[in-house]
Amino acid sequence: MTDRLITHLRHVDLAVPDLARQQDFYTGAWGLAEEHSDTGITFLAAEGSPEQYVVRLRHAADKRIDLIAFGVATAADVDTLAGRLAAAGITLVHEPRALDTPGGGYGFRFFDNEGRTIEISADVGTRAHRRIEEGESVPVRLSHVVVNSADPEGTRAFYERHLGFRLSDTLMHPRMGAMMYFLRINAWHHSLAIARGPHPALHHASFELRGLDEYMRGTGRLLRAGVEKIWGPGRHLAGHNTFSYFLDPHGNTVEYTTELEQVDEDGWHPQLHDFSKPEVSDQWGTANAMNEFVARKSFNDPDKGLFVAPPV
């Protein structure tokens, strides 16, 4: 395992055939703010986050993950990580350079072991953000991203070996074995998780709300708006966070959450959680049962962006 230079999750970028419909969902029902737009592309911020944007939407013929972006502390760390990856034979999409996305900065992109485009950046300007007030049911920040993997053990090993991610917990099933690895890059229980699936794809993107009341208000607002709920509301055991999963207009699963656990990294020991036990999936017992039909919704469509870098 390499030493850890990555500090945090920045944003997840999605390409979709119907940009207007997707943008309307995320700025309307979901509660993100449109910060920057250009022809065929829009950048959406979380009101409580200093990140320039937490979701980027781009019009494209095919639905795909464009990229997942992480931050490091300095430009020197960008160069160090790029050098390490190149020396390990990992394909760089582009070398470290000045970025022309909102906030600027300095960064590079590469393909992970399954072909997802990953961006690493530093020196990105922060945006003017605000404290989310009591009762406001809008996202504070992007909490975590979960990806489906046809090779979850290999994908876990890639992120641990090359990027310094650390295992927090594992979900397992007595018949199916390890089903999800929760990986952290800071004190948050997970910023990335890897789920066993039939093909690489987005499993879900999760957004943190201010607290329990705001999380429930947001969940209720989406239900009243007729947004399709997949699973929830409830509280997981691994990570201890709440969950309400919904589908966006293109069938991507998105989650409202709050109270994700922060771990004592010096004393933390990863646990193996058997999610065939109902209290592991949902401590409260308030969510609809996790079953094959719920799980299938999060398999998503096979990602058509593997080993194909987004044009912007």
Automatic annotation (TrEMBL):
Pfam families: Glyoxalase. It comes from the Bacteria. Residues 8-123, 141-259 form the VOC domain. InterPro entries: Glyas_Bleomycin-R_OHBP_Dase (IPR029068), Glyas_Fos-R_dOase_dom (IPR004360), GlyoxalaseI/FosfomycinResist (IPR050383), VOC_core (IPR037523). Gene3D superfamilies: 2,3-Dihydroxybiphenyl 1,2-Dioxygenase, domain 1. PANTHER family: GLYOXALASE FAMILY PROTEIN, METALLOTHIOL TRANSFERASE FOSB. This is Oxidoreductase. It comes from Amycolatopsis mediterranei (strain S699). The lineage of its organism: Bacteria, Bacillati, Actinomycetota, Actinomycetes, Pseudonocardiales.
